[in-house]
Amino acid sequence: MPLTVAQKIISEHLVSEKMISGEEIIISIDQTLTQDATGTMVYLQLEALGVNKIKTKKSVAYIDHNTLQTGPENADDHLYIQTVAKKYGIYFSKPGNGICHQVHLERFAVPGETLLGSDSHTPTAGGMGMLAIGAGGVDVAVAMAQGEYHFTMPKIVKVNLTGRLNPWASAKDIILELLKRLTVKGGVGKIFEYAGEGVKNLSIPQRATITNMGAELGATTSIFPSDEITFEFLKAQKREKDYLEIQADEGAIYDEEIEIDLSQLEPLAACPHSPDKVVPISSIKNIKVDQVIIGSCTNSSYSDLVKVARILEDKTIAEHVSLAIAPGSKQVLAMLAQNGTLASLIMSGARILECACGPCIGMGQSPPTNSVSLRTFNRNFKGRSGTLSAKVYLVSPEVAAASAITGYLTDPRGFGLKDYSEIKMPKTFLINDNMIIASANNYEEVEVIRGPNIKPFPLGKPLLSKIQGKVLIKVGDNITTDHIMPSPAKLLPYRSNIPYLSNYCLTPCDENFPKRAKANKGGFIVGGANYGQGSSREHAALVPLYLGIKAVLAKSFARIHQANLVNNGIIPLVFENPEDYDDINEMDELLIKDAISQVKGKMIKVRNLAKGKEYRMILDITPRQREILIQGGLLNTIRLKENTND
Ligand code: MIC
Ligand code: SF4
Question: Which of 47, 63, 367, 544 allows an S-S link to 373, with CB 3.0 to 4.6 Å?
């Protein structure tokens, strides 16, 4: 049977029997990645699993999210990750080496292999023809321990690209166009597979920009074929031995098809406060810009920054603009420094930041009150920049650079700016992996260092037959994990300290929620559509678990968050009748009778004791996940199995 690129990789890694969309499949995992903000939990969970050897071909622990180290907490976490990585034979990418996804693309991603990462933008490696999926921490820990990942086989959407981008239109505009058409929930349960003659006109960093932001569609992953452009990139990284050609077979069958004519695209912007509020920049007039930031795993490659340098060459940025640039990796920064390009950036007035996530996760560079900030990032959720009143627009590096010069959100076409079209991908990249520590598995000898910031994480308890409690909060549609567990500079250092974080859970929606949850000894959360969109952070489930949340009732869930809830023993329930959402009020008392037997089925009855009504809720999860809920979480389930096998 003719197969698509994704189907080929899945079928080569299939551990379970069949590949039927909508059904649970198990695939073997070749590589994993973690970053520091999710990594401490992953490695604590790996330790809790009690294995002394990992089963993946390569696993990499990156330090990139919190590199500010404003107190000892993060340095402590880094040390923990570094020592635990050494114990298990996991590569350790030191702080300053770069953003996990950029470095992974440069140094580790392999076409045709599978990658599971504890970060939602792991699909960046899909730009290289790798099946790369973002997941919650415990799924990544289990993938390291058992070499496998369970998920629901998605539908495959063919995105047929035709034509060639016009000057000043960019890869960012391709994915913004898709977000405009499909919205932040349009990709749930789907893999976006790029095809068509337009693919040949996109470099690997451009493809990676697109697959990176497929996460904003809610997609399981996005993938490009692996072709001669992939080969040239790998060769330039001195990794041509990793090359494997992968093309979709003639006649491959896709579940859906979308057409994008690249020549029709113009510069676009995602307006505050959602990546799908996309409009052409030509339609926006007179927006004065206070801050411009270029970087993040979406747009911080060498070619992105060379273009920016060309546009800024011999220019000075507007007086009222603060421009900051965070190169994606040490390789990118070193190359800019070596060939003098960095000087153009510095001379224009840019502030050069460390190679890390930095402002993208609110670690520094929070913009002024009520300001406008243009960013080349992938998320502009309210408050994520660290300034609640700021208006963040997501744009391409070209638009960001042009706007830094003019001081207004600028459509760069016809502006007389320097042309960058002749800039080509480098024939060779500057390669020096001395910030990646490759450690042999040294399990017996290595001492793991645990600073005082590392606290035990909560474990779910086996499901009780009666679940009763109050609705502690009712929120609307598209609630992000940044709402559920905010991560600004003040909180990111406490990712290893769930009790501390619990004081901030859902506070962007209601600052009294944590107090109310504690006073009532837990209860229920009610949400709208696409609840839990955005990041993979498991903390958005671990912290509610700590607060005693038993179930979340919503109109629909984002993929990773739904899995994180189940993995931590919280029941994700979907309204069969969306109108029942309107019927529920905060502090209504809910009751789930015979929970253990109900969880075994697809339909769960929830009584609202305050209203004397009963709601039919759908529990659309796999048989394995039902077992996980009954045991009170994935770790409990695995341990139980091991004890029974002993
Ligand atoms: C993000 O971009 O939201 C993050 C911060 O990288 C998260 C991971 C985290 O919260 O640690 C993600 O994308 O999964
Ligand atoms: Fe880091 Fe931002 Fe990318 Fe998340 S989206 S991995 S915070 S650069």
Answer: 367
Closest ligand, as measured to the CA of 37: 1
User: Mutation test of ligand 2: which of 33, 35, 65, 103 has the most ligand atoms closer than 8 Å to its C-beta?
Assistant: 65
What residue ranges line ligand 1, CB within 6 angstroms?
Answer: 37-38, 65, 119-121, 361, 379, 487, 534-537
Specify whether the backbone of 295 is left (phi greater than 0), alpha (psi in -120 to 50) or beta: left
Asked which of 330-334, 422-426, 491-495 is least confident by mean pLDDT, the reply is 422-426
Q: What is the pLDDT of residues 73-105, one digit of tens each?
A: 999 999 999 999 999 999 999 999 999 999 999
The residue whose C-alpha atom lies closest to atom 11 belonging to ligand 1 is 37
Q: Which of 63, 119, 481 for mutating ligand 2's site (highest number of atoms within 8 Å of CB)?
A: 119
CA 539 to ligand 1: nearest atom: 10
Residue with CA closest to ligand 2 atom 7 = 361
The span from the CA of 390 to the CA of 436, in Å, is 37
Does a cis peptide bond (omega within 30 degrees of 0) precede residue 273? Answer: yes
Which atom number of ligand 1 is nearest to the Cα of residue 357? 6
| Order of strands across the sheet that contains 91-93 | 131-134, 114-117, 31-34, 58-62, 91-93, 436-437
* Mean pLDDT, rounded, of the chain: 96
Nearest to 623 by CA among 6, 1, 23, 17: 23
Residues enclosing ligand 2, CB less than 6 A?
65, 99, 119, 121, 296-297, 357, 360-361, 377-378
User: Which pLDDT score, from 0 to 100, does residue 519 have?
Assistant: 98
pLDDT at residue number 646: 62
pTM: 0.98
Lowest mean pLDDT segment, chosen from 102-106, 312-316, 335-339, 418-422: 418-422
**Tens of pLDDT along 491-514?**
999 999 999 999 999 999 999 999
